[in-house]
Amino acid sequence: MRTIYSEDHQLHDGLLEPDGDGWAPSVECPARANNVxxxxxxxxxxxxxxxRSYGDDKLTTVHDPDYVNFLSLAWSxxxxxGEKGSNAKPFAFVGAGMRYADTRNIHGRxxxxxxxSNAPLVAGSWQAIRRSAEVGLxxxxxxxxxxxxxxxxxxxxxxxxxxxxxxxxxxxxxxxxAAQSLIHAGMDRVAVLDVDxxxxxxxxxxxxxxxxxxxxxxxxxxxxxxxxxxxxxxxxGSGPGEGFNRNYPLPFGTDWKAYSEPLHDALKHIxxxxxxxxxxALGLDTFAGDPISYFEILAEDxxxxxxxxxxxxxxxxxxxxxGYALDAIGENTVNFLEGIExx
Length: 343
Ligand SMILES: [Zn+2]
Prior knowledge:
Layout: E1 2-4, E2 16-19, E3 22-25, H1 30-42, E4 48-49, H2 56-59, H3 65-80, H4 106-112, H5 125-144, E5 149-152, H6 174-184, E6 190-194, H7 201-207, E7 213-220, E8 245-250, H8 256-273, E9 277-282, H9 301-310, E10 316-320, H10 329-341
Parallel strand pairs: 1-4, 1-5, 5-10, 6-7, 6-9, 7-8, 9-10
Antiparallel strand pairs: 2-3
Helix pairs in contact: 1-10, 3-4, 5-6, 8-9, 9-10
């Protein structure tokens, strides 16, 4: 299996996130992707290739052009406003009875285009964000060119990003961009299976009214866990998309045995949908040792998870999402990818 990877993710470094009374280094850090790529090399999974370049028109197949423009300019606007902080991050969000209108102040713009304070921008962020999207898009192109599998080693991740808002360490939705690219190239139906510990709220919302992209997500119950405001079982799509979104909210402590059953159900729905390809949003934060999560999936279980998904026998693009256990993310990722290949 080929991996698509860009070193440019290193530019998205020095991120901070809320911690107690202040801010602490974010768990979403360069070592995550570095460790994944090191494990791929060590276990000789296959070639690693750089992403191709794509125009803004590719990014705006999923995202609002104003939002893409904001992401590209936010850091320079932050500096131009005389801000000294190393992380541009919002503190004000639109509430009930308020509206965005003509928001020109950088703090207003950060609030306009974010749904939380855990997607900060630093000097090199835009370059990394854009390349991460291109890593996803190149993976979709490899599938279109006939490869059975591809792995897009994206960083930053993307599945929380909506059409016009960043949040949860995500800016551009790499998984959604890849799925949309497959549809755009002529595939009738694509399934997106999100196995990250957190609900893929961005991916769900992007395709919520569509019947050509089936979205399924297994995740910690949003009644208990981030992103809190989406990912419940009764969200099944709307309009033409009615019946084309499925959520599997799971309790804390879910282990492989408990995870297998909803996964089996999700895979059955994918089979019944007869997609031309599957895009897997792979989060390794379901791991028992993950520092911010409460599932109990073990290293060897990722082999079984990959095998189950590989048994669909469909062209499959795997896109890296979350996973914060730095000493395990590499092994767990390669276990999953080898499982898919050897199904
Ligand atoms: Zn996650």
